[in-house]
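USER: If only I could read backbone structure tokens as easily as an amino acid sequence. It would mean a lot if you studied the pair and described how this chain folds. Here is the record:
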Amino acid sequence: MTVVIRGAGIAGLVTAHELVNRGFSVEVHERATSVGHGASRYAGGMLAPYCEREAAPEQVLQLGLQGLDWWQKTMPADVIGKGTLVLAQSRDSAELGRFAARTQGYEWVDAEAIAALEPDLAGRFHKGLFFAEEAHLDPRQVMQRLYESLEKRGTVFRLACNEAMPPPARDHSRDGTTGQAVNCIVDCTGAAAIGTVHGLRGVRGEMLYLQTGDITLARPVRLLHPRHPLYVVPRGDGLFMLGATMIEAEDNGPIAVRSLMELLNMAYAVHPAFGEARVTETGTGIRPAFADNIPRVVETPEGLAVAGMYRHGFLLAPAMAQEVADRLERRHTSVERKIA
């Protein structure tokens, strides 16, 4: 069976990797001139199933643990397994208790433990939550490595591909005329599928990159706040990714002034050194989401779609890819049985 994947963001690349591993012939079509555009480019890359459980159902935790395991086994050199540190300012300490009540897999840490984990935050926070089993990765680096690995294994990439997608080949085995393989299109286009896949809406996310040599962090730090929670993800060499807003809108324009100020104010609250940092990049992305904010694999007239990744792209892409591969294996087995 030949599978055409439409979209080379994280969902498309991970799905391609999973299908190639299972012996499928794969071709990836992407409208951009390179892989890893769209919301995937602006992701935090946090593999944090326990933390995500705070605002998501149990299903996200279980699928996220599956995803974390996949990344650790598939790309161990790219996964930084130093956990997640969740903090709050003294006036927002109740937020820590609320967060803890909705999660698991953490330990309470005091000021001394926080300083041991992140020396540059010594004396700034009195208590927090440490999720030791979580990890993070650099989305742009990982997507490029997936692309290079797939190319070496024979996957065809058609970049800047704007031509109409050919329809899947007909399953002639049903009428007994021939045993040709059945082609399938897997839609992994993310927000581009809004209006095509029923029930999808867009959720705007905004982020920025800061550069400073005055602070070092070893792991993602989440700062809780009733209205403006923040996460800071270290990228190495003094570069930090800050995010992310959650706005119910499909506007993909530049970052809003209010969002920029809120993110910068919260970064300053983590450490005043961020006040002297340089803003090297800002970005926005539209996250496709269903009403329950849980991604799923859905049937389409052309084949399948990985849809509604919401804010869980890197964390849940492996579970969605495995479901796609399982479905196509069952379909392929069914066709072979009919031919036999």
